[in-house]
Amino acid sequence: MTSSNTVVSLRQPDEIDDPLTAVLRSGARRLLAQAIEAEAEAFLAAMKDKRLVDGRERIVRHGHGPERLVHVNGR
């Protein structure tokens, strides 16, 4: 009696084994990035009227405005 064992490797979750899946995943990533960007812009627009005591905007996008000098009290 001869027995033949075949080892079948399982597909890993990060592996893409067909071009259609790769296209769909990259499209989904792009759509998600656009949705997050739109959400951030809507939030900033809604908070535009919130100001600090000195008149500057209270909520700004990190890295998208003029650089500010940060003062730490007590140091």
Poorly predicted runs of 5 or more residues: none
Instruction: Tell me the fraction of residues in β-strands, as a range.
Output: under 5%
Number of strands: 0
The average pLDDT score comes to 84
Overall number of structural domains: 1
Helix content: 25-40%
Rg, nearest Å? 26 Å
Q: Please state the structural category.
A: mainly alpha
* Coarse morphology: elongated
**What's the story with the biggest beta sheet?**
none
Oligomer: single chain
Distance between the termini: 84 Å
Question: SSE order in H/E notation?
Answer: H
Number of helices in the DSSP assignment: 1
Primary descriptors:
single chain; 37% helix; mainly alpha; 75 residues
Characterise the protein shown here.
The protein is mainly α and about 80 residues long. The chain has one domain (about 15-70). Helix content is about 35%, strand content about 0%. It has 1 helix and no strands.
